UniProtKB/TrEMBL annotation:
Residues 445-632 form the Integrase catalytic domain. One of its GO terms (molecular function) is nucleic acid binding. The keyword Coiled coil applies. GO terms for biological process: DNA integration. This is Integrase catalytic domain-containing protein. Signal peptide: none annotated. It comes from the Eukaryota. Residues 55-82 form a coiled coil. Keywords: Coiled coil. PANTHER family: PHD-TYPE DOMAIN-CONTAINING PROTEIN.
Length: 750
């Protein structure tokens, strides 16, 4: 009996849960439903659903212990009826509310152009925009792995912000650490407000009344005020302060105009000041665009750069006049004789009509006078500088002055043979200085030197070199320092395979003028059939015909002389050496081996040769890839698979692990070659300030190099530099031993 009593109490507790659920839904007002209430109902449904199974389990045990089956059946039916009635009622409420949500317009999935992520350099005022944009695009997107989020974050940071997380390795666990570091450092409301207020006080002063300068000060005011308002500052009550601050930056003319608009003693609002600045900008834009509105105003204005250009025009004319009357520049309008350039009716005509009238009167198109031979007038068009009168200037005028329309027949018909040969002569004034240089006999000779502050060296003319008696030496400059590598994988050594690989090479790299190859006997370990096959390929008529069609010269090195290959044999040896130790005994299919070769080619062509700029903030390296594709080669970020057992990797991950193994081996050997020195008889050169060096990059993903510039050296007591301070491209300063610095070759050492 005790057990039955406990079960009945447990059944009562379950029924009380259903009663509590009914009491809650009875209070729901369907007219005031919202998303929060719907979510509450859904959670309660999930919570109440298991009680039916619990009730059934308890009731089954009671049925076995109690003999009154009718009473137990009634309890079961009553509970089930209430349970399903309440659930149906709640689901009906939810279904009634859901169509209202579904009535919202459906956003179609369309392909939009990619959005470029903003960059953040440590400016407090730029942090809110960067935080919102990066969070929406990258941080809150669950589809992006953490490692790629970290990669995007690093690529979006620079300067001080990048230095803050530079010590963190590119791993999945470090992404949250880096993101929290940035938030702790820059998500500071007080400092952000202080930065915007400082920018308001540091507005650039307007020195001259122009639309550009007024727009700049207006845009900066609105930008910082909106930012402060979004941060909760009472910007609307700062009108007098902002107006006083802004007017102190205006020029005298604009300030006078602003004071003229104030008609009462009531302080103006910022909205009135903003409206005034916008009207001033519109007025100045209209005035600036109408400076050259009419040609007559251009005539009265001073000449435009009269000495900038001087056109020399040779004009040969053969005039034959039927009535033999003397033509002159005077014309007769309304019984008044006056020069054509003073005629009011002539000035009212459009430019093409003036040109036609001048040709009818056989006048010079430059001075508007009648003469034969060259025009000796020093004047030219004051608008375009060409050798024609300003009155005849047209926006679409052609350089030749021929008229496509035939002149109308008149009593005085003229036949004109015209030949024009114009040559522009530009006069450029350069700053020079007269200096005295000592020749090889000790005598001083005067000469003129061009003062060019942008160059460190100056050229000397051959005439001055002979006069000074200077010695001459031939200079040979090597242009084969890039050593770019292109790898092709072919299925066999047939003629068609060679032509196909040559076509692929020319489609990607362009047509080459010469091809150097070995003589097939240097295929060490190859069988006689392979040598014969390669010999047949080289002697096939289709290959020379293909090369002759493309204008390519094919040269062979002597047989059994691989050392004649030089640079390309060294490249082949380097690739085979590392490829054999990287792939080992793995069996790869064609696509996998081709992928590995393509990525190895990118690794080899990513090695730095020198830098493109001397600025420590812009240490972008010049690589062989710049000569092939015009820029650096980049690959997506990948996880490091070198530490994982190879039998646990999938095929494509195994391929990436092989490439990463190749990168670690080859990069370390490449860095060691930069420090390699042979025996020496003289003291070697010390590390100097300004040298460009590489740091150990084997821990980074492939094709990533750490480039730095030596900014400070620390010589020992013996004067030998063993420690140096370098600055990386991110602005971070590091102190390293010179044995850990790998200097790039300088121009005189290349």
């Amino acid at each position: 009996m005790a057990e039955l009593k406990a079960l009945i109490q447990k059944r009562g507790a379950i029924k009380s849960q259903l009663t509590a659920f009914h009491n809650f839904i009875a209070k729901v007002d369907q007219s005031t439903l919202c998303d929060t209430m719907i979510k509450n109902l859904e959670l309660r449904i999930k919570n109440i659903e298991p009680i039916l199974d619990n009730f059934t389990e308890v009731q089954n045990i009671i049925d076995e212990l109690e003999t009154d089956l009718d009473k137990n059946m009634k309890e079961r039916e009553e509970f089930q009826d209430r349970y399903f009635e309440y659930l149906a009622f709640v689901n009906n409420i939810i279904d009634t509310y859901n169509p209202k949500v579904s009535d919202q317009p459906v956003q179609l999935s369309i392909s939009l152009p990619p959005i470029q992520l903003p960059t953040f350099s440590g400016n407090y005022e730029s942090w809110p925009l960067f935080y919102e944009t990066f969070s929406a695009d990258i941080h809150n997107d669950p589809r992006i792995p953490e490692i790629k989020k970290f990669q995007y974050l690093v690529s979006s940071l620079k300067s001080e912000a990048l230095d803050l997380i530079a010590h963190l390795n590119l791993t999945t666990q470090n992404y949250e650490i880096a993101w929290n570091l940035l938030k702790e450092s820059y998500d500071n409301k007080r400092l952000i407000i202080k930065s915007h207020v400082s920018k308001l006080f540091e507005l650039k002063r307007v020195s001259k009344e122009t639309s550009t300068s007024l727009k700049e000060i207006l845009n900066n005011l609105n930008k910082h005020l909106r930012a402060l308002k979004s941060l909760g500052e009472p910007v609307d009550s700062w009108d007098s302060l902002i107006i006083h601050l802004a007017t102190s930056k205006l020029d005298s003319k604009t300030l006078r105009s602003w004071e003229g608009t104030i008609k009462s003693s009531i302080p103006p609002t910022y909205a009135q000041f903003e409206t005034f600045l916008r009207e001033q900008c519109n007025m100045l834009e209209a005035v600036e665009s109408s400076i050259h509105s009419t040609v007559s105003s251009e005539i009265k204005s001073p000449g435009l750069n009269k000495t900038n250009q001087k056109n020399r025009t040779h004009c040969f004319m053969n005039l034959t006049n039927n009535n033999n009357s003397n033509s002159n520049s005077k014309i007769k309008f309304n019984e008044d004789n006056h020069n054509i350039y003073r005629c009011f009716r002539f000035l009212q005509e459009p430019a093409n009509s003036r040109l036609r009238k001048v040709k009818e009167l056989q006048l010079c198109v430059n001075c508007l006078k009648s003469h034969k031979g060259d025009c000796f007038s020093k004047h030219s068009c004051k608008i375009c500088g060409e050798k024609h009168n300003t009155l005849l200037h047209q926006d679409n005028i052609r350089k030749d002055t021929s008229d496509p329309e035939k002149p109308s027949t008149s009593a005085a018909q003229a036949v004109c043979n015209f030949s024009n040969n114009s040559r522009n002569k530009f006069k450029v004034l350069l700053s020079t200085s007269i200096v005295r240089i000592k020749d090889k006999f000790g005598n001083f000779i005067g000469c003129r030197a061009v003062l060019d502050s942008g160059s460190q060296l100056s050229f000397i003319t051959k005439q001055l070199s002979n006069k000074l008696g200077l010695e001459k030496h031939k200079s040979f400059v090597s242009v084969k320092a890039t050593r770019a590598i292109h790898l092709e994988l072919v299925s066999d050594l047939t003629t068609s395979a060679f032509i196909a690989s040559l076509r692929r090479f020319m489609a990607r790299r362009g047509v080459c003028s010469k091809i150097y190859s070995d003589n097939a006997t240097n295929f060490v370990g190859a069988a006689k059939e392979l040598r014969k096959l390669f010999h047949n390929t080289c002697t096939s008529e289709s290959v020379p015909e293909q090369l002759a069609t493309e204008g390519i010269e094919w040269k062979f090195i002597p047989a059994r002389s691989p050392h004649f290959g030089g640079i390309w044999e060294a490249g082949v040896k380097c690739i085979k050496h590392h490829l054999k130790r990287t792939i080992g005994g793995a069996i790869l299919n064609f696509e996998e081996l081709y992928t590995i070769l393509a990525q190895i080619e990118a690794v080899l062509n990513s090695r730095p040769l020198t830098i493109l700029s001397s600025s420590p903030d812009d240490l972008v390296p010049l690589t062989p890839a710049h000569f092939l594709v015009g820029g650096s080669l980049l690959i997506p970020a990948e996880e490091d698979y070198t530490t994982i057992n190879i039998n646990r990797l999938k095929r494509w991950r195994m391929v990436q692990a092989m490439v990463q193994h190749f990168w670690k081996r080859w990069a370390s050997e490449f860095l060691m070659q930069l420090q390699q020195r042979g025996k020496w008889k003289e003291e070697s050169r010390n590390m100097q300030v300004g040298d460009i060096v590489l740091l150990d990059s084997t821990s980074l993903p492939p094709q990533n190099w750490i480039i730095a510039k030596v900014t400070k050296i620390h010589p020992g007591k013996d004067g030998v530099v063993r420690v140096a301070t370098v600055t990386t491209s991110s602005g971070k300063q590091l102190t390293r031993a010179v044995t850990k610095l790998y200097p790039l070759p300088k121009e005189d050492e290349a």
